[in-house]
């Protein structure tokens, strides 16, 4: 290669280097464009690959289309933006719709590059907790067949104080009940993540307590429950292959009506006994 070609090659390399990403010369880009299986009660962190500047964080933002979504920690610059759902539970906890998106319009990064439009999509867990479900008579039913095939993964909340009657008595949500149909020797795996401490009580068909699990604050707690045979004695017409209703009671451990709502997520998986 002669000297002229070498100089031309060096010049071309310098031009390509100047146009590359080393100088931040690209428009802002989402680090991740989609999130699924988030709790509807989560704070959603949306991350970009570069520092955004001059953001309009008003309710009627020119930079962000807010459909049933609210800003959290409003900042006019930064790589991460935070959002919560605009809906509220009776206890005042914000939550997202099942599916949603956040549109970002004409956002600019600190290198001066602009992106005219980019969209972040999300899907939340099902909110299986439907009030009133504070007793086994009103328990929300869990799809046992789905729990056998895969698992059932959902969200709920103990709202604590949710209102006041005309006579001044407090209306409270301190217990949630879920019903699942099981048979003898089934093994149920439960994973629960919660903001504050909880108890999970497994109750047999008659409502008597089979066992209690303590779920620690702010952790992913895993439990295993094996269905015994004693429920067969309660009804002589039952056989070991009959499906019967069992109950999972999510209840508080020490919180009061005045405490902030305690959201949780729960995953339930059933393994059938194989002879």
Description:
- The termini are far apart.
- The protein is mainly beta.
- Mean pLDDT is 88; it is low at 12-24.
- It has helices spanning 3-19, 144-149; strands at residues 34-38, 44-53, 64-65, 69-72, 78-85, 87-88, 94-95, 99-109, 114-124, 126-127, 140-141, 152-158, 160-164, 170-173, 175-182, 187-194, 198-203, 209-215, 220-226, 244-252, 262-271.
- It has 2 domains: 25-124, Immunoglobulin-like (Sandwich); 126-271, Jelly Rolls.
- It is elongated and about 75 Å long.
- The strands form 5 sheets. Strands 1, 2, 3, 4, 5, 8 and 9 form a 7-stranded mixed β-sheet that branches. Strands 10-12-21-16-19 form a 5-stranded mixed β-sheet. Strands 11-15-20-17-18 form a 5-stranded mixed β-sheet, with no helix packed on it.
- Helix content is 8%, strand content 47%.
- A hairpin with a 5-residue loop joins strand 6 (87-88) and strand 7.
Number of helices: 2
Mean pLDDT: 88
CATH architecture of the largest domain: Sandwich
CATH class of the largest domain, named Mainly Beta
Tally the beta strands: 21
User: In total, how many domains does the architecture comprise?
Assistant: 2
- Detail the poorly predicted runs: 12-24
- Give a short account of the largest sheet: 7 strands, mixed
Distance between the ends: 77 Å
Radius of gyration: 26 Å
Classify the beta-strand content into a percent band. Answer: over 45%
N-to-C order of helices and strands = HEEEEEEEEEEEHEEEEEEEEEE
Approximately how much helix is present in the residues?
A: under 10%
Overall morphology: elongated
- Tell me the structural class: mainly beta
What is the fold named in CATH at topology level of the largest domain?
Answer: Jelly Rolls
């Amino acid at each position: 290669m002669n000297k002229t070609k070498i100089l031309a090659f060096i010049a071309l390399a310098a031009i390509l280097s100047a146009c590359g990403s080393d100088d931040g010369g690209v428009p802002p880009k989402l680090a991740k464009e989609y999130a699924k299986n988030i709790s509807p009660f989560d704070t959603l962190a949306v991350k970009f690959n570069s520092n955004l500047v001059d953001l309009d964080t008003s309710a009627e933002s020119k930079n962000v289309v807010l459909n049933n979504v609210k800003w959290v920690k409003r900042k006019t610059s930064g790589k991460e933006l935070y959002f919560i759902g605009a809906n509220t539970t009776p206890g005042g906890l914000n939550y997202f719709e099942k599916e949603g998106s956040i549109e970002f319009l004409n956002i600019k990064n600190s290198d001066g590059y602009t992106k005219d439009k980019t969209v972040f999509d999300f899907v939340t867990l099902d909110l299986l907790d439907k009030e009133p479900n504070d007793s086994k008579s009103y328990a929300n039913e869990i799809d046992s067949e789905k729990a056998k095939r895969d698992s059932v993964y959902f969200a709920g909340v103990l709202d604590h104080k949710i209102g006041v009657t005309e006579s001044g008595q407090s209306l409270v949500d301190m217990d949630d009940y879920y019903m699942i149909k099981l048979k003898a020797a089934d093994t149920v795996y439960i994973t629960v993540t919660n903001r504050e401490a909880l108890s999970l009580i497994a109750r047999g068909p008659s409502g008597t307590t089979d066992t209690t699990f303590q779920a620690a604050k702010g952790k992913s707690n895993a439990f295993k429950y094996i269905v015994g045979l004693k429920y067969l004695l309660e009804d002589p017409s039952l056989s070991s292959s009959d499906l019967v209703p069992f109950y999972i009671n999510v209840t508080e451990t020490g919180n009061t009506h005045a405490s902030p709502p305690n959201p949780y997520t729960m995953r339930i998986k059933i393994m059938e006994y194989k002879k």
